[in-house]
Amino acid sequence: FETDTINFDTGGTQRLRINSSGNAVFSGNIDANGDLDVDGRTELDITNISETLNVTGISTFQDDVFVGTGATVGFGTTAYFRDHARAVFGDNENFEIFRNTQAASGPYNEIKSNSGNIRIRNHDTSASGKYFYLQSEIVSLRSHTNNHAFIECFAGAQVDLYHNNSLKLST
Questions:
Q1: Cα separation of 146 and 104, whole Å?
Q2: Does residue 25 sit in helix, strand or coil?
Q3: Which of 47, 60, 97, 159 has the fewest CB atoms within 10 Å, i.e. is most exposed?
Q4: Are 98 and 109 in contact (CB under 8 A)?
Q5: Looking at the whole model, is its pTM more than 0.90?
Q6: DSSP string, 65-125
């Protein structure tokens, strides 16, 4: 019997151990029928939360986070994604947004669809004169394999139009 540890045993099995530092170790399920207030670090290893889990402060996830069908995910004002992290959408992961900093041609950001169309739409019909802007020093419209140019626009210079990857008009 250790004098600095309190043990609770049932049926010859240790169920609870409290040491002199105040640490409690449970060796079975804990059924808390009221609020649980935790001040300090908390780990939820394997969870199946069927009600509401409210987290205040910064939450760090080391693995994928899955959101169920019909669920709503809310972010305060910003969602941060590290380099090479992806925001993936669809049951078959057919749409993604990501940043790649190790590409041979330098860092780039990508919106990628593996099925279906991508529509970017300005749906503001409140007045005429609404624009859709692509802003860059060079704008290039190319095939999905990136080896056929359609249109290339250069700030302060020419616009090139191509047919079958052959330059047809340059302004």
A1: 14
A2: strand
A3: 60
A4: yes
A5: no
A6: ----TT-----SS-----TT-EEEESTT--EEEEEES--TT--EEEEEESSS---------
Rounded to the nearest integer, the mean pLDDT of the chain is 82
Q: What is the pLDDT of residues 119-154, one digit of tens each?
A: 888 777 787 777 778 889 999 999 888 889 999 999
Count of other CB atoms within 10 angstroms of residue 58: 5
Q: Is the distance from CB of 113 to CB of 95 less than 8 angstroms?
A: yes
With beta carbons less than 8 A apart as the criterion, state whether 81 and 65 touch. no
- What's the pLDDT tens digit per position in 36-59? 777 777 776 666 666 667 777 777
For residue 137, give the nearest of 153, 150, 148, 149 by alpha carbon.
153
What is the torsional sign of CA 49, 55, 60, 64? Answer: positive
Residue 126 DSSP one-character state: S
- CB of 17 closer than 8 Å to CB of 25: yes
pLDDT value for 48:
67
Instruction: Give the single-character DSSP code of 144.
Output: T
State residue 150's pLDDT score: 95
